[in-house]
Amino acid sequence: MSLLNLWTVGLAPRVLGVLFAAVLASAVYLRSRGRVHKVYPPGPPRRWIVGNLLDIPSSVDLTRFKLWKDTYGDVVYLNALGYSILVLNTARAINDLLAKRGENYSHRPIFVMSGELMGLNKCMALVDYNARYKRLRTLTHRALNPDAIKKYYPIQEELTLSYMQSLVSKPDEFLVNLRLTLGRVILAVTYGMTVETADSEYIAEAEDTLNTIGKATLPGAYLVDLIPALKFIPPWLPFTSFLREAEAGRRQIYDFVTRPFEYVKRHMDNSPPPSFVADLLAERDLYHDMEDLEDIEDGIKWVAGTMYGGGMESSFATVSTFYLLMARHPDKQKRAQQEIDSLLEGRRLPKISDRESLPYVRALIQEVMRWHVVVPLGIARRTVSDDHYKVGYYIPADTVVVPNIWALAHADDEEDHTAFLPERFLRTDLPTDPSEYVFGFGRRICPGRYLADNSLFLLISNTLALFDILPPSGASEQSALSSVVTPEKFRCDIRPRSEACVELIEEALAGDPLRTGLLPA
Q1: Nearest 5°: phi and psi at 193?
Q2: Which of 4, 18, 65, 66 is deepest in the core (most CB within 10 A)?
Q3: What local confidence, expressed as pLDDT, does residue 487 receive?
Q4: Which run of H or of E encompasses 493?
Q5: Do residues 178 and 459 make contact, with C-beta atoms less than 8 angstroms apart?
Q6: Are 127 and 109 in contact (CB under 8 A)?
């Protein structure tokens, strides 16, 4: 009997219903059967349809992440609407997966708005782990390894001195000028720019670009990040303003990475000063042909652009936290100052070469980095293929992997981990150096970490040598200081330790200002 005949006698609907039910039951059976050997890592119970969607916080909720760690252990697995997330809570788990299995765990998640639509998927921090990334990383290491960056010591020391002068003349603007100083350092090292050129042409543009990127990367800010298919809809339809924002952002980001790069290229025939871009452009042995040259130059351009965003935000947050902690802990501040005084006797200012002779200052910087981890959940990774871990836990391809750096910094086995204790880094049983986790892991570790370490040491050691950092006057300000969450939203009093300290700054500026032969405007 044909299907038409069945329908005419009223049997077709029932037959089709039975067939549909059979197909559905078979699909459910096969899916469940396929999962028999797939034991997922432990995690919060999943709800029907939405899975763990309601468990995922919209902002960094460290209390929730600590609860998950205490409940589920080294690794925590979540699945929301088919998307897998794996949180790594211990150094062992991070080392096992991000370091030892780097080929599978070194890709980045797909960022639709900021990455695909705005073009940030070309920057080194977000580009996928592929052959081009590996080559660019090799080039970057050549230019930013510990020996290669020694040529930048005078630049970093000179700009630190200028910042010390600003603390004398405008102490209330210590955070504004800190951000300006860090921007100057990055632009000088990356592109060989003078202070005047950086201030007049590039720093304001860089800050605007960072604001644009910050808005584009806010979780949930754009629906297209949750529904990627929206990127294909025609821009003339209603509710597509995000496409116009994306195009404006793309142009802004492209201009930001291109203009300073072209600035260096214009001066390559005039013996430009040392800089990251100039050094790599000068190494012609790196390029095989014109096509290769264009590809590598494009990569250098984007790596250089990445250095501003990566170096600025982390360094600014760390030094800001230093000010906050010194105002709260005058005893730690005094001990560090005594160590500096014993070494330098007030005759000169600290230099990078003094770092090994100032163990307490080094320990204080380590504790600042540990106490307030700048990026508590790191930068997420993505798996490219299925994997198994520990007792057969199944980790699907395209799982977003989150390193819980805050958990490493505040390990439960570390005594009094919530307290600010630089002395913990002077013990014989040393805790893990924060530099081993705040700059990333394995094949995606930050290539500019040595430059950042030098800037942190110079800014913090010179400030300690010359100034006292005190809580702001007034009870209301004291209260605000004790409850601060965001380091840039607080005040403190910064005063020269003595008139001799002010004279030391003036003598340094008058006697040996480098005024580096950087590129003219």
Answers
A1: -85, 145
A2: 65
A3: 64
A4: strand 493-496
A5: yes
A6: no
- Give me the sign of the Cα torsion angle 39, 41, 42, 43: negative
Contacts of 287 (CB under 8 A, 6+ apart): 293, 296
273: its two tokens: 């000063």
User: Coil, strand or helix: which one is 401?
Assistant: strand
Note the CATH architecture for domain 35-511.
Answer: Orthogonal Bundle (1.10)
pLDDT reading at 199 higher than 70: yes
Contact 521, 355 (CB under 8 A): no
| Torsion over CA: 76, 78, 84, 85 (sign) | negative
Residue 474 sits at φ, ψ, to 5 deg, of 105, 135
DSSP for 43-62, please give it: -SPPBTTTBTGGGS-SS--H
Q: Which residue has the higher pLDDT, 277 or 33?
A: 277
Q: Encode pLDDT of 55-71 as tens digits.
A: 887 677 888 888 999 99
| Element holding 470 (H helix, E strand) | strand 467-470
Measured CA to CA, the distance from residue 324 to residue 364 in angstroms comes to 13
Burial 241-275 (b: 16+ CB within 10 A, else e): ebbebbeebbebbbebbeebbebbeebeeeebbbb
| Structural domain spans, the chain | 35-511
Answer yes or no: is pLDDT of 1 > 70: no
Tell me, yes or no, if the pTM score tops 0.90: no
Mean pLDDT of the chain: 84
- Residue 297: closest CA among 125, 518, 132: 132
Tokens 């480098």, residue? Answer: 514
Q: Indicate the pLDDT class of residue 456, thresholds 50, 70 and 90.
A: very high
pLDDT at 479: 40
DSSP state of 446: -
Question: Is the distance from CB of 507 to CB of 348 less than 8 angstroms?
Answer: no
- Residue 289 pLDDT class (50, 70, 90 cuts): low
pLDDT above 70 covers a percentage of the chain that reads: 85
Tokens of 280: 């790599």
Contact 88, 82 (CB under 8 A): no
- Counting other chains too, the contacts that 219-227 makes at CB distance below 8 Å and 24 or more residues apart are 219/58, 219/59, 220/58, 221/113, 222/112, 222/113, 224/112, 224/113, 224/117, 225/111, 225/112, 225/113
Residue type, position 426, single letter: L
How, if at all, do strands 493-496 and 387-389 pair? unpaired
